[in-house]
Amino acid sequence: MTPKVVENKTNLEFAWLGHLFVSGLFDGRHSFRIEPAGENKVRFVQSERFTGILVPLLWLFIGKNTRRGFDEMNAALKKLLEDK
């Protein structure tokens, strides 16, 4: 995949969209959002939406590692920011 930036709202959202070979086979839109969560707090939301005819097949192979990678990144980011 060679993703392209599809959203870039400073301090709000950043997203990219990638396609496996051609659009419609296996597409992934990955986004990062920052939402207000109270006084001096924000909520970081990372999400990925997969679409395309190969999603059911490929998800069997990448689903577990994909989720683990998101969880690890979120934990590392949380620790980095809380340590500041």
Q: How many structurally independent domains?
A: 1
Shape: globular
Question: Which consecutive residue ranges, at least 5 long each, have pLDDT under 50?
Answer: none
Order the strands across the largest sheet as they lie in space.
Answer: 1-2-3-4
* Helix-strand category: alpha+beta
Please trace the helix and strand order, writing H or E for each element: EEEEH
Percent of residues in helices: 25-40%
Our measurement of the CA-to-CA distance between the termini, rounded to an integer number of angstroms, reads 34 Å
Largest β sheet strand count, sense and barrel closure: 4 strands, antiparallel
| Structural Rg | 15 Å
Mean of the pLDDT scores? 92
Helix run count: 1
* Number of DSSP-assigned strands: 4
Strand content: 35-45%
Give an account of the 3D structure.
The mean pLDDT is 92. It is built from 1 helix and 4 strands; from the N terminus they run ββββα. It is of the alpha+beta class. The protein has one helix at 55-82, and strands at residues 4-9, 13-19, 27-36, 42-51. A 4-stranded antiparallel sheet has the order 1-2-3-4.
Reconstruct the topology from this structure.
Layout: E1 4-9, E2 13-19, E3 27-36, E4 42-51, H1 55-82
Antiparallel strand pairs: 1-2, 2-3, 3-4
Key words describing this protein structure:
39% strand; 1 helix; alpha+beta; 33% helix; 4-stranded antiparallel sheet; 84 residues
Summarize this structure briefly.
The chain has one helix spanning 55-82; strands spanning 4-9, 13-19, 27-36, 42-51.
